[in-house]
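Predict structure. Chain length: 143.
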Amino acid sequence: KVGGGNDASSTASLLSSTMGLLAKLQNQLQSPAGGQQLQEMSTPAVQAVPINNKLFVAGLTPGTTGEMLQETFAHYSPIECAVMTDKVTGRSRGFGFVTLSDAQTAQAAMTAQHFVDGVQVEVSECWEKGTGPSKSRRIGTPY
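Prediction complete.
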């Protein structure tokens, strides 16, 4: 028995309290200010911030090097090309980054098809670390 009372009165008290809380919540949601507060609470604190002239390149083979990226994107005059590598093996982790001179050039590179080390890769805009689209959609094949 809860609190020494009988089960029926404890259950009725709990039900009454729950119904009261639900009524308060419903009133808050129906009021204009309450709805706004709920919307503010559901808005993520970190906004996705694209880096306009930096590209994310996915689907690289384990043998891909920065030089291979440089050759593939040579038409766009890349400023920097980097393949992310495994610290232990030194092999490609399957993705890299290409920095171009401006956003227009980056946009043009994103619309073209690219093959690196004989494999078609996916090129998309790069996002600041910790922001960007949901990771529920994985790009490329993990190696």
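Summary: The beta strands are 50-58, 80-85, 92-99, 114-116, 119-127.
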